[in-house]
């Protein structure tokens, strides 16, 4: 199970690294092969970075909530806990 969890985290991490490389290449005005425009290359890289970080953060948050290690309670969680305790 740990190997599967590691693979689930490595793939979005690699995508985020590719996104950083694409944005860096755009800043140095180096156009990569599949992209016809620099702005398209930059926004693709930005999307890959945001997706990678979002996925890894969501995975960590899910595992922390599952193991009751969350440090703070969001307003939605607070409403659920107060409504279930009043029933």
What report would you give on this structure?
- It is built from 3 helices and no strands.
- With 87 residues, the chain is mainly alpha-helical.
- It has one domain.
- Helix 1 packs antiparallel against helix 2 (38-66).
- The longest helix has 29 residues, at 38-66.
Instruction: State the end-to-end distance.
Output: 37 Å
**Average pLDDT value?**
88
Count of strand segments: 0
Radius of gyration: 19 Å
Jot down its keywords.
87 residues; mainly alpha
Q: How do the helices and strands line up, and which of them pair or pack?
A:
Elements: H1 2-27, H2 38-66, H3 75-86
Provide a concise account of the structure shown.
With 87 residues, the chain is mainly α. Helices cover 77% and strands 0% of the residues.
